[in-house]
Write a structure and sequence with these properties.
Elements (H helix, E strand, L loop, with lengths): L2 H33 L2 E2 L5 E16 L4 E4 L4 E5 L7 E2 L4 E5 L2 H59 L4 H28 L4 H26 L1 E3 L4 E6 L6 E2 L4 E7 L3 E8 L11 E6 L2 E18 L4 E8 L11 E18 L12 E6 L2 E6 L1 E5 L3 E6 L7 E2 L12 E2 L30 E3 L3
Parallel strand pairs: 1-21
Antiparallel strand pairs: 2-11, 2-15, 2-22, 3-10, 4-6, 4-9, 5-8, 6-7, 8-10, 11-14, 12-13, 12-15, 13-14, 15-19, 16-17, 16-20, 18-19
Helix pairs in contact: 2-3, 2-4
């Protein structure tokens, strides 16, 4: 076939193809104009939805113990290492105890001496005082009899005045000796001054010994509770003084998570709410927790409130000051009507609305939004389960004609379960922001 004929046939085919394409385009435009474009619509779906607040916090024990010395001394031994788990009363630091031991010996000797003095009063002083009283009373009786005889002799003229005076003097001396013996006996008896003084000396020596033994005990610093040593600021040979923290102990037992929550969410928090905690180092291990404390004061610098959660069964991998993510459940609805956020106009405002398909046209319908979450919102009023909703990005306006694209009806993915919504929040826990999942 000549080349001219081929070109002629090809030209006719091209013209016919262009004409067919033009006619198809005109037909499509006419269809679009008359019946509207085909649009993929969304069907609402029911499912469980959970409202929660998310934030970042840190693992902390309910309290920490700063361990220090109670006396000045030189560190002789440190039998533990930082990070070690210790038992209650386990030795942590030993100070040089030679001087303290010597002081205990001196106090024991002083106590033995005072006790010997007390025993001497009981075994010797008191019996001797009783004998002295008996002897003095006998001497007094003899002196009184002699004085009486001399006075009678003086009356009959057989005794001189000098003899009477000597007898009177001997009687007066016997009286004084008797009084002195009685005072000595009274002093050595229980409640007497000599006895009380000896007993006081014994008590003072016992107190001195107790103080010396206490100071000796201070040279051995032990763990006040079982736990983990999370800090150590002392080495062998250091001179330590009271008031300086040498180690920090994190007691074993209950573990808490401390989180800073935006004050806007304060009204949603309540003691006893459930939460899930996961360490950033172990994101797949989600641990149940319970909200146990909400600080009554708000930090004016960060506009946050401190919240504490208790982890009843903390695993071994949780460590002090570890960063964790917290998801606090503040509300739950088991049967909520859900739509994708992309199908709701102004979902954050007070006048949210949607476009639904009615008789081939887009009809504007006001709706009431409940919980808002990760790509989904709960519709509490204004929408039925069998309605078909036009997505916002479809470019359809209220009153426009449209056709539902075949096989295009979709529903919110994963409607059942927790509804995350990382809404903005100013959380100061661990230096990160706290957020909220799901907001009414």
């Amino acid at each position: 076939m000549p080349h001219s004929s081929i070109r002629s046939v090809f030209g006719r085919l091209t013209r016919w193809g262009l004409l067919a394409g033009l006619l198809g385009l005109v037909g499509w435009a006419a269809t679009e104009l008359l019946f509207g474009p085909r649009v993929a619509v969304v069907a609402p779906e029911r499912g469980e939805v959970v409202r929660s607040i998310v934030a970042t916090g840190r693992i902390l024990a309910p309290y920490r113990v700063d361990i220090g010395a109670q006396i000045t001394g030189v560190v002789a031994e440190i039998p533990v290492a930082e990070g070690q788990t210790v038992a209650r009363d386990q030795p942590l630091i030993r100070l040089d105890d030679r001087e303290a031991t010597a002081n205990v010996g001196l106090a024991e000797a002083a106590l033995a001496q005072t006790r010997a003095r007390l025993r001497q009063i009981e075994d010797v002083g008191l019996p001797v005082a009783r004998q002295n009283v008996a002897q003095a009373e006998a001497n007094l009786a003899a002196a009184q009899s002699a004085f009486a005889r001399v006075e009678k002799l003086k009356e009959t003229g057989f005794a001189t005045q000098a003899q009477v005076d000597d007898a009177r003097k001997a009687r007066d001396v016997a009286v004084a000796q008797t009084r002195s013996a009685h005072l000595q006996l009274q002093s050595n008896q229980p409640g007497g001054t000599e006895r009380v003084t000896a007993e006081a000396a014994v008590a003072q020596s016992e107190a001195s010994l107790a103080a010396a033994r206490t100071k000796l005990a201070y040279t051995a610093i032990a763990a006040p509770a079982a736990g983990v040593l999370i800090a150590r600021n002392v080495e062998r040979g250091d001179v330590v003084q009271p008031g300086k923290a040498l180690m920090t102990l994190s007691p074993s037992g209950e573990t808490q998570v401390v989180v800073q929550i935006d004050e806007k969410s304060l009204g949603l928090l309540a003691i006893g709410q459930n939460a899930l905690v996961s360490a950033d180092a172990y994101p797949d291990d989600r641990l149940p927790a319970e909200l146990v404390y909400v600080n009554p004061a708000v930090d004016p610098q960060t506009a946050t409130v401190q919240v504490k959660l208790r982890i009843p069964a903390p695993p071994a991998h949780l460590r002090q000051d570890m960063t964790v993510s917290v998801d606090i459940e503040v509300a739950r609805k088991p049967d909520a009507l859900l739509l994708p956020t992309t199908a709701v106009h102004d979902p954050l405002g007070a006048r949210a609305w949607v476009l639904i398909v009615e008789d081939g046209r887009a009809v504007k319908r006001p709706v009431r939004v409940g919980l808002r979450g990760d790509g989904r919102v709960e519709i509490t009023e204004g929408l039925a389960a069998d309605d078909r909703v036009v997505p916002v990005r479809a470019g359809i306006a209220a009153g426009d004609r449209l056709r539902v694209r075949a096989g295009s009806v979709t529903s919110p993915a994963g409607a059942a379960g927790r509804t995350p919504d990382p809404s903005p929040g100013q959380g100061a826990g661990a230096g990160r922001g706290g957020g909220m999942r799901g907001m009414f």
